[in-house]
């Protein structure tokens, strides 16, 4: 089979997704479908896709895509892609819209879904604001700092690089703000549902609540014994997130 097709499709219903206004060029040749700048609306945003679907090995078809995503809704995306729900199940607690640019290769199974441990991907992700609800991680941080604003916080001005390889999603350390506190976060998560993240938060002493009172009392006692200790106005907290 050897043909080229210019497409314009109003709606495609695939799995849990409603894809609309798809247009672009498809070239079928040598057992491959090449996609040239396919544009579509989906997941409350839009996507541009170029790449190929390769069936030269009919038992192990592969894909190689270059994608540019704008404004995808996070909860809708997680629900729509089984790949993401398995790799990042905790993302169901996350709200917001993201844009991302990435390349991906993978082998497909008999249902044309990616074989998860075959996925190789790398790219960048941006968001103005990502909100967390009922997060156990930030709930514990809020309890420790006695700061309820951290219980359901927003992560602002997110700009990160990531890669997926050998069944794990790796996020390079990046700087952001969460409830007006500076934070640097990075780590990885896997298909086995394990988490391995490290975060560093810079918290003004005045925001430490009861912990600040304890620190002041300790400094006062040391001072009364002639021991002068200077403490920075900003406290750096190192946080390890596992599970």
Overall 3D shape: elongated
Largest sheet: 12 strands, antiparallel
Order of strands, main sheet, comes to 1-2-3-4-5-6-7-8-9-10-11-12
Q: Uncertain segments of ≥5 residues (pLDDT<50)?
A: none
**Beta-sheet strand percentage?**
over 45%
H/E series: EEEEEHHEEHEEEEHE
Number of helices: 4
Q: What is the count of β-strands?
A: 12
Structural class, please?
Answer: alpha+beta
Helical coverage, percent range: 10-25%
Report the C-alpha radius of gyration, rounded: 23 Å
Overall mean pLDDT stands at 87
Describe what this molecule looks like in 3D.
The chain has 243 residues and is an alpha+beta fold. Helix content is 16%, strand content 56%. It has helices spanning 74-80, 82-87, 136-145, 210-224; strands at residues 3-14, 17-29, 32-42, 45-54, 62-73, 94-107, 120-132, 154-165, 168-178, 181-190, 195-204, 234-242. The radius of gyration is 23 Å and the shape is elongated. The protein starts with a strand and ends with a strand. The mean pLDDT is 87.
């Amino acid at each position: 089979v050897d043909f080229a097709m210019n497409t314009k499709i109003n709606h495609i219903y695939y799995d849990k997704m409603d894809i609309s206004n798809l247009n672009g060029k498809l070239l079928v040749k040598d057992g491959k479908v090449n996609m040239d700048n396919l544009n579509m609306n989906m997941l409350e945003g839009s996507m541009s896709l170029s790449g190929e679907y390769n069936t030269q090995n009919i038992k192990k078809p592969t894909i190689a895509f270059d994608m540019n995503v704008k404004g995808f809704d996070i909860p809708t995306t997680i629900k729509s892609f089984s790949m993401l729900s398995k790799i990042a199940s905790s993302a169901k607690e996350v709200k917001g819209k993201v844009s991302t640019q990435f390349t991906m290769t993978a082998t497909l199974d008999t249902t044309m879904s990616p074989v998860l441990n075959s996925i190789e991907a790398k790219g960048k992700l941006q968001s103005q604001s990502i909100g967390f609800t009922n997060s156990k991680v930030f709930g514990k941080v809020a309890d420790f700092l006695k700061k309820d604003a951290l219980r359901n916080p927003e992560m602002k001005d997110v700009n990160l690089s990531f890669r997926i390889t050998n069944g794990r999603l790796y996020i390079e350390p990046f700087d952001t703000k969460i409830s007006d506190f500076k934070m640097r976060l990075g780590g990885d998560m896997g298909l086995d549902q394990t988490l391995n993240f490290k975060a560093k938060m810079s918290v003004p002493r005045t925001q430490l609540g009861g912990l600040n009172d304890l620190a002041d009392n300790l400094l006062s006692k040391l001072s009364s014994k002639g021991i002068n200790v200077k403490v920075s106005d900003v406290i750096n907290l190192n946080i390890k997130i596992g599970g």
